[in-house]
Amino acid sequence: MNVGITHLRAFLAVLDSGSFSGAADELDVSQSAVSHSVAALERSLGASVLVRTGRPRPTAFGEQILVPARQAVAAHAAICELAARRNRQPAGTVRLAAPPTACQGVLPALLRRWREEFPQVNVVLLEGDDGEVEEWLRRGAVELSVLVGPPSEQGVLLSTDTFQALLRRDHPLAAEPRIDVADLDDDPLILSTGGCETYVRQAYRLARRSLPGAHRVRDMGTLLTMVRSGIGVSIVPGLTATMLDHRLVMVPLAQRVTRSLTLTGPADRPWHRLAEVLTAWRRQHPTDAQDTDVLPVDLDLPTLGALPVRTRPAAGGHREPPVTA
């Protein structure tokens, strides 16, 4: 039996990307090469590992080898990493998951710096809501995550993010230097369910008001479109400013509510070596950890298009981390 790391990596990439073409992009090879690798794996094992009708998913036997395959690929990466460390040059691939506002507002500059400092390290960025990012880290789908909350002993603070009102530019309150939560009562509230609700409720508690009925949306892009269309207003993290166009503005709230964004590895197992390297570097270079309460309304920042993403469901019904190209 001749089962190679290349074969296992192709098998996992097809499942993780949701398609043979996506796997080819992820592995930087042709789609034909991916197909041949999976077929070679099946010949070596004497059994099919993928159901190819519709979105690829593992066969019953494919499910059985999924965990050992991930362990084998991870072990291979660890060996390559140790060899690189012997030459004092970190190398390899590490997966980093983060919520959309962090992907747009904090990570682009950090990824550029990491690329400059560690040219042989490939950071794969995956985007999800707060709960997904935490779950992916817990079950080992990623090695690093940007989590909401203060740093643990090993984690490092990336940014302090202050919640603000999101309005259309032609809204009567758009030019105010600061507004009260109560001032938003005349407009329907649009609430992100991706981890913001706890903080929005805190703002209403500080104002001694009850959270009104609200449109609830999961996707931040949908929320922005709804506000842009005049359907209502919202309260969002300050880093959302990096995703706005000229039709939207953010106004600080009288009720100051903040969240911390922390770069961290898993809490229940040893960290991937590259996760340790990147986190240590960030701890030594704690720049750009500014409070978003001071971001000006007309700040010229990158738009959402700066980091295109692919979304895909995981095999077995779980939502797989969408990869940022």
Descriptive overview:
- This protein has helices at residues 5-17, 20-27, 31-45, 60-86, 100-105, 107-117, 130-138, 197-206, 220-228, 273-284; strands spanning 50-51, 57-58, 92-98, 121-127, 144-148, 156-168, 189-192, 214-217, 233-237, 248-252, 258-264, 312-313, 319-320, 323-324.
- With 325 residues, it is of the alpha/beta class.
- Strands 3, 4, 5, 6, 7, 8, 9, 10, 11 and 14 form a ten-stranded mixed beta sheet that branches.
- Helix 8 (197-206) links the parallel strand 7 (189-192) and strand 8.
- Helix 1 crosses helix 2, helix 1 (5-17) packs across helix 4 (60-86) and helix 2 (20-27) crosses helix 3.
- The relative contact order is 0.16.
Which structural category do the helix and sheet elements fall into?
A: alpha/beta
Task: Give the beta-strand count.
Answer: 14
Distance between the termini: 35 Å
Count of alpha and pi helical runs: 10
Task: Give the overall shape.
Answer: elongated
Short description:
With 325 residues, this protein is an alpha/beta fold. It contains ten helices and 14 strands.
SSE inventory with pairings:
Layout: H1 5-17, H2 20-27, H3 31-45, E1 50-51, E2 57-58, H4 60-86, E3 92-98, H5 100-105, H6 107-117, E4 121-127, H7 130-138, E5 144-148, E6 156-168, E7 189-192, H8 197-206, E8 214-217, H9 220-228, E9 233-237, E10 248-252, E11 258-264, H10 273-284, E12 312-313, E13 319-320, E14 323-324
Parallel strand pairs: 3-4, 3-5, 7-8, 7-9
Antiparallel strand pairs: 1-2, 4-14, 5-11, 6-9, 6-10, 6-11, 12-13
Helix pairs in contact: 1-2, 1-3, 1-4, 2-3
